[in-house]
Amino acid sequence: xxxxxxxxxxxxxxxxxxxxxxxxxxxxxxxxxxxxxxxxxxxxxxxxxxxxxxxxxxxxxxxxxxxxxxxxxxxxxxxxxxxxxxxxxxxxxxxxxxxxxxxxxxxxxxxxxxxxxxxxxxxxxxxxxxxxxxxxxxxxxxxxxxxxxxxxxxxxxxxxxxxxxxxxxxxxxxxxxxxxxxxxxxxxxxxxxxxxxxxxxxxxxxxxxxxxxxxxxxxxxxxxxxxxxxxxxxxxxxxxxxxxxxxxxxxxxxxxxxxxxxxxxxxxxxxxxxxxxxxxxxxxxxxxxxxxxxxxxxxxxxxxxxxxxxxxxxxxxxxxxxxxxxx
Length: 327
Known about the structure:
By secondary structure, the chain is α/β, with parallel strands linked by helices. The protein has three domains: 3-107, Rossmann fold (3-Layer(aba) Sandwich), CATH 3.40.50; 133-195; 201-326, 2-Layer Sandwich (Heat Shock Protein 90). The protein is 54% helix and 18% strand. It contains nine helices and ten strands. Strand 9 (310-315) and strand 10 (321-326) form a beta hairpin. Helix 2 (34-44) packs parallel to helix 3, helix 5 (109-161) runs antiparallel to helix 6 and helix 7 runs parallel beside helix 8 (238-259).
């Protein structure tokens, strides 16, 4: 049974759509806006997403950009936009971002169900093709260098089979060499296995999403971004990647709205068991003692509390702002 995530801010439309899908045998998860949609996605990883474009806080295009950043394309579910907008530029933008389909409101239930069924079938065929291609690739690898190494090792061991009682120095060396060949074969087999997995570290959500901000929002506002990311080590958990994306987005938005900054510096580092985010701008700053936290900083504080993180902020009038987050 397939699971479908609906991201729609209009409650009546969202619940009506959910009823149609549940009657048709689908498991349905509902999200009232883009941010909650991202959270639901990370917890469930649905088989298909239906997302509205025009929503408060975060539109459908940005939802798709964030989700694609944290999940490899080979595992990303079909993503269907729905909107009352029919302008070609909106359809083209959605498709260029990676959307699978675009449905214009209002639509009939049979039309919607037909599109969903088609996209799920296409996804199944794609997954089967990827598995098949990977099996072929691994088989070819094993038939090449690995097979030769194992054969050489086997010949060495066979040569010793009838001479175990003698175990001269020469035979000991031969045994050692055979053991080394076998270890090399095992190492290469592991390498083939590891190569078959997508290197998720190279597509960290943070780097992809922040580069996206640099190319779009900050560029359009004529703000320079100095970005440093060092997250060597184990891949961050999927949910944590998304949470950091949202925190960074909140800080960037605050700067663009209030700081009048020309330069933004952001460092994201892994230090032992902590992830540290150091954010700084050269904007107008403010007096910490006379400042009342706005919605942006309240959102950051709330999110960090949920993640058991730490928050500190430094600012002075005309001297910019520094924010330090620790997770």
